[in-house]
Amino acid sequence: MRFFSRLLPASYVFEGMRAAITRGKVSAETLLWAGCLAVFDLVLASWFFGRIYSYAVRTGLIARYSAETVT
Questions:
Q1: For 36, which DSSP code?
Q2: Which of 3, 19, 23, 42 is the most exposed place for a label (fewest CB within 10 A)?
Q3: What is the pLDDT of residue 64?
Q4: Is there a contact between 58 and 43 (Cβ–Cβ < 8 Å)?
Q5: Could you tell me the residue ranges of all domains in the chain?
Q6: Looking at the whole model, is its pTM more than 0.90?
Q7: What is the pLDDT of residues 33-61, one digit of tens each?
Q8: What is the rounded CA–CA span in Å between residue 26 and residue 31?
């Protein structure tokens, strides 16, 4: 689970908040990691959505779905 938690930006934000509460300092490094991971996740999700969308348009799945819901 530790491996998967390191892939999520929220874990770095929570770690930074815990450090801010206990030590009184905000760690810029943890916030930078969280920001970079968030951008990476958005890019990856956009790429994945683009692939799925182009496949659906190419195979006609969207046209078939919208035509079936009209009737």
A1: H
A2: 3
A3: 65
A4: no
A5: 2-70
A6: no
A7: 999 999 999 999 999 999 999 998 888 88
A8: 8
